[in-house]
Inverse folding.
C-alpha cells in the first residue's frame, strides 16, 4: 500500500491537519450527524468458494446477488439488500468499506469535506442495492465510500417472516448471525485516522487506549450511532498501511456466541480466541479466520451509548492488561496477524517482532 494521501493539501505528514484539537474538544464540538451507520464491508478472498461456504453455510448469512467475481450476502436482521461483499482476489484483506449517509445533502457535505482534504477518489454509480457513492481513502489508505440511496431487502416467499418488522425469517442455519456490527482497522498513525473519523466523518469517540502516560495513542473505538463502536483504529505493529484486523457480526446473546464455538469446531473452523469478554466495550467475543484468511468476530453484549455529551473512556497499559475482562488470554497472533498479511518493518530489518508480553494487547 502506498502512502497516498499522506502529503495531501492541508494535511500533516500524519494525514490530518495539525489543528491542535484535543480529544475532548473534538467530542464536545457541534456534532456532525451526516453518517448514519456502517452500510457494508467488502472482503477480498483468495478462496472465494470456501469463504462463501463459511459465511453462508456456517454463519448462516443469505446470498442475495452474484456478479463477476463478487457475491453479496446479508444477515437475517439487516434491513439492506446486502451488507457483505465477497470478492475473489489474490490475497485476503479489506475492499471498499461503505458508510450510509443520513440524506443526500449529508452525502454532498461529506464528499465536499473529504475532497477538500485531497483524500477523494471520486463519485461512483453505486454498487448492488444502492445509489451513487463518493469514494475516498482514509489517511492510512483504506478505501471507503459514503452513499445514501439504499434498497431495502424484500424477502422471497420462502424467507418471509411472520413478523412484519423482521426483514427475513430466522432460518436457523448455522450460527445465524443477525447483522453486521463493526470492523477494526490497523493504522500506522492511529491519532491521524481517529481525528479524520471524528472531524470529517462526524464519529463520536467512545473509548481509547493510550500508553506512555497518555502520549501514545494505541487504539480508538468510534461510532456514528448508539452502537458502542462501528469503527476501531488500532496501531499496526508491523508499520504497514491499509490493513484489516477483523470484521464483526452480531448475534443476539452470549449463549449464541458459545453455540457458535460448537458449530465452528464441529466444522473444522479455526478459533483463534474466545469465547471470552473484553473490558473495552464489555463485548462478548469469539475470533475465527474465514477460509480466505480474514479474521471474523462473532460478537454480542456490548453496551450502547445514548449520552450526547459522552466522555471518552481512556485506558492505560496497566488498566488495559491483556484486553480480556475474563476468559483465556489473547495469543500473539492477535497482534501480529492482519490482512493482507505482510512482513513488518522489524522483520525486514532482522529485528525481533514484539510479542504480547512487551506490547500489551489493545483490543
Amino acid at each position: 500500500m502506498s502512502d497516498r494521501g499522506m502529503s495531501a493539501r492541508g494535511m500533516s505528514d500524519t494525514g490530518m491537519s495539525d489543528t491542535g484539537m484535543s480529544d475532548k474538544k473534538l467530542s464536545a464540538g457541534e456534532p456532525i450527524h451526516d453518517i448514519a451507520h456502517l452500510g457494508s464491508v467488502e472482503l477480498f478472498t483468495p478462496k472465494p468458494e470456501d469463504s462463501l461456504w463459511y459465511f453462508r453455510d456456517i454463519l448462516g448469512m443469505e446470498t442475495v446477488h452474484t456478479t463477476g467475481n463478487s457475491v453479496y450476502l446479508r444477515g437475517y436482521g439487516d434491513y439492506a439488500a446486502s451488507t457483505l461483499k465477497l470478492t475473489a482476489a489474490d490475497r485476503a484483506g479489506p475492499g471498499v468499506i461503505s458508510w450510509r449517509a443520513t440524506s443526500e445533502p449529508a452525502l454532498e457535505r461529506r464528499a465536499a469535506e473529504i475532497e477538500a482534504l485531497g483524500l477523494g477518489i471520486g463519485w461512483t454509480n453505486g454498487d448492488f442495492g444502492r445509489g451513487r457513492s463518493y469514494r475516498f481513502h482514509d489517511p492510512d489508505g483504506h478505501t471507503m465510500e459514503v452513499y445514501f440511496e439504499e434498497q431495502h431487502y424484500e424477502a422471497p416467499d420462502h424467507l418471509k417472516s411472520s413478523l412484519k418488522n423482521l426483514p427475513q425469517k430466522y432460518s436457523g442455519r448455522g450460527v445465524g448471525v443477525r447483522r453486521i456490527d463493526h470492523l477494526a482497522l490497523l493504522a500506522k498513525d492511529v491519532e491521524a485516522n481517529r481525528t479524520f473519523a471524528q472531524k470529517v466523518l462526524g464519529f463520536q469517540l467512545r473509548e481509547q487506549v493510550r500508553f506512555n502516560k497518555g502520549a501514545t495513542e494505541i487504539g480508538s473505538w468510534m461510532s456514528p450511532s448508539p452502537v458502542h463502536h462501528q469503527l476501531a483504529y488500532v496501531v499496526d505493529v508491523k508499520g504497514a498501511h491499509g490493513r484489516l484486523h477483523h470484521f464483526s457480526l452480531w448475534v443476539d446473546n452470549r449463549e449464541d456466541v458459545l453455540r457458535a464455538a460448537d458449530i465452528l469446531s464441529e466444522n473444522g473452523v479455526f478459533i483463534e480466541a474466545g469465547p471470552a469478554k473484553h473490558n473495552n466495550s464489555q463485548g462478548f467475543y469469539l475470533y475465527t479466520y474465514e477460509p480466505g484468511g480474514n479474521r471474523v468476530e462473532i460478537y454480542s453484549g456490548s453496551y450502547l451509548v445514548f449520552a450526547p455529551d459522552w466522555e471518552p473512556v481512556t485506558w492505560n497499559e496497566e488498566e488495559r492488561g491483556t484486553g480480556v475482562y475474563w476468559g483465556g488470554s489473547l495469543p500473539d497472533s492477535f497482534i501480529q496477524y492482519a490482512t493482507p498479511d505482510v512482513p513488518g518493518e522489524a522483520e525486514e530489518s532482522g529485528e525481533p517482532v514484539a510479542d504480547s508480553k512487551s506490547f500489551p494487547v489493545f483490543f
Observations:
- DSSP finds eight helices and 18 strands in the chain.
- The helical segments are 23-28, 48-58, 104-116, 190-199, 254-266, 317-320, 333-336, 345-349.
